[in-house]
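pinned: reference chain
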Amino acid sequence: MKIHALIFDLEYPPPASKQLIAWIDQPGNGKHTQHAHPSKTLLDVEAVHTIIHRRQQYVVTGVRPYRTTQCKDETRYPTVKSGREWLVAESA
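pinned: its structure tokens
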């Protein structure tokens, strides 16, 4: 099982909402996106964590898989605690 991309719901002033799709590379980060904590990857991101996208910081309010090896439509994936937790649960 592998996650190719995650979709993050980002804290944004109401009524608007903002989402970010990050395609994950081999080390676990994206080309332009990474976890704000240097020892963590995008797979470790949980709600209230901060990510950095193109030098801008964003607070995450939700995480869910966007593309995986399961090839489901992105709307069929639930909101998860983190990408890593979802991988563990799916492989169990």
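why pinned: The two ends are 11 Å apart (CA to CA). The helical segments are 83-91.
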